[in-house]
């Protein structure tokens, strides 16, 4: 019985939270990795693209709620998401036209584009705060739980409870769908293959008649769609706060680099690796150890949650030192 | 049609201020194999790049099938019937062999499955690996994929920049055999080669470039027989 309780506790406190957090990171890292593969720079504005998009989704959600539209048990934000993506994509294509295209046509070094993206990041961050404010916002309406602790205890008779929130389940389902659609697009469609070809060998892609500007536009749109989806899911799961999206940039980059920059499959794997490490290192394992018959003195928590970003840092440094191309052999940084 | 199929005449130009090409002329007839040889730094690859429009020409002109294409970009020249296989970075390494060929056919709106079948027929070794990533293939097979990719647009002139660089002698012989086969289908070939002797053996016409200008021009066999050419360029 104790092993069962231990398993349930691991599921409830480690596996489920890490899986949904990992899915959010994976979506973010996919966008970062796509932009790196095609535009060949690390986009620092990606976190704030998530924030900007999520803010627009919240505004549209409020609008929908005020006219009485809802999705029943699902959050209304899901309905607002496509509109949020479209508006953000227009804005992002605008930044490409105004900022990045200039440096691209000059064939500037990647570091210059990175710095330009830092500028875009600050502007987007300011804009988002101007639009929606700096306070914490909860916008998850509909049902809160798919499985509650009480229900789970009643079903199983275990003393340890397990809950699954709607936002967590939604995150996993939406991420799975988004990844499926993305990989299908990249592997099957003509435009997707053109993107991969351009990422593989820019000059040869040009010779083959692939239009680079079209590839770039498509990449921005797809990366934005992934970012806004990730931002909205993260906000539904943990509440929306502009500054959080700036902070999440580090684990997202860690995920993209662990998987190998430019490699979409690696980004997904990297997202889960970073999330599981972060949760596993910051979770107090005493409860589970007790179930397994140990009597630990302390909490068995390796790192307090305030320092969770240190985990991303350490992973990043280890990967860069020992395997700079990442686990799935992307481009070297 | 009067005149040769490709005629690049009196080309002058370079990357910076100094000219690399000093009045270089290259012509290829339909279905002919033309080979450019010469010492290092003679401007062999540069001459080919100039033909393909990757180099700004100060003087001279390039005509394909009688049409002046001097001012067209490389992409536009591909549409006019030129195929180019760069010396390095000539495949999409993380894409499968089949996808490499598909990308070669990117500009084609019609059904290109016939062409793909022909390419596989020409290179049976890579046909077996069509679902494998091109980057995982051996050097010789990669070159075959690279040539196959360029053939997907059904070019009338195929340009190869040192196709046998870095492959073993056996693979080199096989590649040359394939190139002869391609020429037999009526495609003109313009090729830069480091392995001058073997390349001249299959050449209908050979150009020996020195310092960006034509030094000797003759049939491949005649150049091989010429004691002066043998002494200075072929090592005796």
TrEMBL record, chain A:
InterPro entries: ABC_transp_permease, BCAA_transport_permease. Keywords: Amino-acid transport, Cell inner membrane, Cell membrane, Membrane, Transmembrane, Transmembrane helix, Transport. GO terms for biological process: D-alanine transmembrane transport; L-alanine transport; L-isoleucine import across plasma membrane. Pfam families: BPD_transp_2. Its main location: membrane. It comes from the Bacteria. GO terms for molecular function: L-isoleucine transmembrane transporter activity; L-leucine transmembrane transporter activity; L-phenylalanine transmembrane transporter activity; L-valine transmembrane transporter activity. It is a multi-pass membrane protein. It is found in: Cell membrane. The chain crosses the membrane at residues 6-39, 51-71, 77-99, 111-132, 166-186, 215-236, 305-322. GO terms for cellular component: plasma membrane. Belongs to the binding-protein-dependent transport system permease family. LivHM subfamily. This is Amino acid/amide ABC transporter membrane protein 1, HAAT family. It comes from Paracoccus denitrificans (strain Pd 1222).
TrEMBL record, chain B:
The keyword Transport applies. PROSITE patterns: ABC_TRANSPORTER_2. Keywords: Amino-acid transport, ATP-binding, Nucleotide-binding, Transport. Residues 6-236 form the ABC transporter domain. GO terms for molecular function: ATP binding; ATP hydrolysis activity; branched-chain amino acid transmembrane transporter activity. It comes from the Bacteria. InterPro entries: AAA+_ATPase, ABC_transporter-like_ATP-bd, BCAA_Transport_ATP-bd_LivF, P-loop_NTPase. CDD domains: ABC_TM1139_LivF_branched. Belongs to the ABC transporter superfamily. This is Amino acid/amide ABC transporter ATP-binding protein 2, HAAT family. The lineage of its organism: Bacteria, Pseudomonadati, Pseudomonadota, Alphaproteobacteria, Rhodobacterales.
